Amino acid sequence: MGLIFQFIRKRQLVRFHAAKTVIALGLAALLCNGALARPGAEQAAEQPAAAPPPTAVIHVDASAKGQPFPHFWEQMFGSGRAILSLRQDYRDDLRAVKAITGFDYIRFHGIFDDDVGLYSEDKDGNPVYNFSYVDQIYDGLLANGVRPYVELSFMPPKLAAREVHQAFWYHPVVAPPKSWALWDDLITKFAQHLVARYGIDEVSQWYFEVWNEPNLDFWAGDPKQATYYELYDHTARDLKRVSARIRVGGPSTAQAAWVTSFIQHDVKEDVPVDFISTHVYGDDTAQNVLKTNENISRRDMVCRAVKKVHDEVEASARPQLPIIFSEYNASYMNLPDVTDTIFMGPWMANTIRECDGLVSMMSYWTFSDVFEEQGVIKKPFYGGFGLVAEGGVPKPVFNAYKLLHMLGTQRIPADSDSAIATRAGKKTLEIAVWNYSAPEAAGATKEFTLQIDGWHGARKVLIYRLDAGHGNALTAYDAMGRPASPTQQQYAELKNAAKLGPPEKEKLKRNQITITLPPKALELIEVH
């Protein structure tokens, strides 16, 4: 995804600027001449300070049985295209994110692109395969404890029916194959090689997703849907002929599209499908995703799309199919005020709250700003999608994932849309509380009292904070003048500023604790 979708999706961000005109001199003259009375001037001068924010009480039922709470938001991440995984900084960032989330899968575009070198042809047009970089790519992932979620894309140029490029900086070829027999051979040889190298017991734990966003400009088949279904049919059957244990799915669409039609097609044509995959972003529109004229906020858009797909699968002839959102984020554009900032803490927490129980796995796009869809990165903070900025600097969203990873595996009731309460074992509660406001809004400080009902455990409390002054490297970046190319010393300072710091220690009093959250803050409260 990226800036290019400003054209694809035809979105505009409208920013409103307020201007104030103060007419002071004339009023001052009138006041001095006594022409304008000033009743109550003394009282105005002695107006009391603004009242403190009202306190919202959140009741947490610690005695409730609880519901399973799998960490669906941190099992998979997207990344820059396949060849970038050979870079050292990519692998460094991967290890950093693995350490705070324990994630299992990674997805990227372009395993069939020319820079990976898998497919070529001899002078007679016969396929020539070279798995050298493919092996290095997948070996590198597995060595770091991460399995591939294999997006089968894009078209090897020599296999393409015509020369059609997508607009990314690296210009992938998105045409259908010139020969279905050659495509079948590519998929078969690719799968056979993976099984021979890694074993079917390993490869059967991977996912194979056919293409990327065929409803947009990543697929040049005409008509798009029918030709994509032909691509899917060939690919799924090819993989299953190698081994019935290989998992394959799609349609990998943008804007949560085609799911009902895709399942109907697979059922009608008896085509294998093991999971449903699709994408959505916080600034996708209701017109594109839901086919309505609603005005859905960035806060709610992702999970409205997830609910739509959940309901479509549930109503289909294959209601048990797992649902994977293999791309999502708060924006599909590079917006520094969104993806680089502390806004992402409350946004992520609320997305988890709303999407819980509706989806098997969600893949945040992306884990790192080692990423080149718009070209070589020009500065560390530019609104990139990653958890880690250039130079290995953790962003606030990295720290949000670190805190949200601490949530337990049993969700218990909390009567608030600004909290998630969980149980981690028998003697510990992990509760996330946040103060959401839109990126363009200043927001207001809020006070919350957590009332822990039915709690008979210890009363020790640890409070971890993510806000403008905690775990936010942008404050230090602003202070150093936002250099486009920080020195190594400056990078060290940014990494130090990005640290969350130690938790604050408190105690429950009458099973209560009151916390004050500045705008866009996320806090993780541990009771043990």
- Strand order in the largest sheet: 3-4-7-8-9-10-11-12
Going by helix content, strand content and strand pairing, the class is alpha/beta
- β-strand amount: 15-25%
Largest sheet: 8 strands, parallel, barrel
Described by the principal axes of the CA atoms, the overall outline is globular
CA(first)-CA(last) distance: 42 Å
Structure summary, number of beta strands:
22
Q: Radius of gyration, Cα only, in angstroms?
A: 26 Å
Query: Total helix count?
Result: 16
- The pLDDT mean sits at 90
Oligomer, anyone?
single chain
The percentage helix is: 25-40%
Low-confidence stretches: 1-47
Any overview of this molecule?
The chain has about 525 residues and is of the alpha/beta class. The protein is about 30% helix and about 20% strand. The strands form five sheets. An eight-stranded parallel barrel has the order 3-4-7-8-9-10-11-12. A seven-stranded antiparallel beta sheet has the order 2-15-16-17-22-19-20. Strands 1-18-21 form a three-stranded mixed beta sheet, with no helix packed on it. Strand 8 (about 205-210), helix 8 (about 225-240) and strand 9 (about 250-255) form a beta-alpha-beta unit. Helix 6 (about 180-200) packs across helix 8 and helix 13 runs parallel beside helix 14 (about 395-405). The radius of gyration is 26 Å and the shape is globular. It starts with a helix and ends with a strand.
